[in-house]
Amino acid sequence: MVKQGGRARAAARGPVALLPAPLSPKIVRSRTLGELDTLLVAMPASAGRESLAALPEAERWRGLLEREAPQPLSVRSTTLANRRQTQAVLGLLPDAPSEFERLQLAGRMLKSAAARTPRAAGLVALGTSAARAAGLEALLAATLAEHFPLPSFKSAAPAAAALERIVLPADPPLDTRYAKICADGTNLARWLTALPPNMLDARGYRRVLGELARRHGLGLRWLGQSELRRAGANAFLAVARGNGHRDAGIAQLTYRPARRRTAAPDVALIGKGILFDTGGVNLKSHRSMLEMHTDMSGSAVALATLVALAELRAPINADAWLAITENHIGPQAYRPQEVVRAANGVSIQVIHTDAEGRMALADTLALAARTRPHLMLDYGTLTGACVQALTERFSGVFTNREALAERLLAAGRASGERVWPFPFDADFDADLESKVADVLQCAVEGKGDHILAARFLNRFVPPEIPWAHLDLSAATRAGGLGHINTDITGFGVRFTLELLVRENVLRALREQI
Ligand SMILES: [Zn+2]
Fold first, then answer.
1. What is the pLDDT of residues 192-204, one digit of tens each?
2. Cα of 274 to ligand 1 centre, how many Å?
């Protein structure tokens, strides 16, 4: 693994950096806001000119505010008359904004300032104490996302200036450590998802896992194809059969705060890691195949969340289970009408080889369930139907505990990574009845495929384990989402940290929500 100071641009000249250089601007609290290249100020549109009095060159800020009608979520900018010609960016919030709106405004402000890479950026939020803390955190999240370079393999990339210092006002109090670790997690998921499929192949992914396990003191177990054959994981192996190499596998990473490796997991995070999805013998067309290197983003979210939990030293025993394979074509590739038996004994009639995500997840869920976690969460870019239903602005959630649905929604609202629940009623199972096997992989027609996929996965999760399934329709969106200005959003890390760490859903489950 190569550590690099700036962008990873090692393609032609040695080992490819499969992990990003650590993002390390210093975050400092200061009473003064001098010597800044950029100063970003978020305020309620209704707050009025008096609230700008404490800013340097307050008259200029007032001019900005009064330049046009104060439209919520609008951004305006100018240059201050100081020696550094500070770029001044003012963003206006609606009254009582949602967390998503705070992030969205912060993302727009960062975008409008993107022409110049500052060495020192100042962030200010105005309003009540709670509004200032929330506004500041959104600006910090957006700043750390915007100044994180995604993989680039240009041989003559210009040396990008790096952000060195982020200056925050001394008040209000803010957990900058949590904010930074959360942003790093989202950035790690974005980075891995953006890597080209010839670089993040199964071998490359294993190197990434080895390195992350070493850095963060995680346990790592790799179940290769022969172990999976012994475990009876034939649904996963059916997908892996089309690969050019026999290097697919399921990884289990373990974080134990007290370092007692054998302690039972509180939570298992399970991710779909399809490194490239051709669709298999039901081959995708040009446009629908083009972005299919991002079909591993579910595994990146599970992995990056586990790393963030370790960095936070969260008091949670957590495992990540990553289903890592391509879905390829070739003489050995699996075909419609095959019948395969998964690790928990359930037999599956294959209908469409492009519904490989649920095949790979089926065995991974069954294996994770053997460790008896108190909660299972799985992530996958699973169905086009979920995107049809929600667009890429929300991700879909399904759960086998009705009371959990409210918690999931709340974590989505509070984190700004919004989720929406779908029905999970048992009568949908009639659409997956097979004449020859226990269950159909999917229905022949695509109607409600996101719901049927969740009902299919339900066959591999014991009913006594609380479980939520996230269909990551918001994993990629043209132009970005919320505070993220790139197509790859890393959606899921921020949401899950909110659910596990801030909302403490595990305690709620113990207390029988
Ligand atoms: Zn597929």
1. 999 999 999 999 9
2. 8
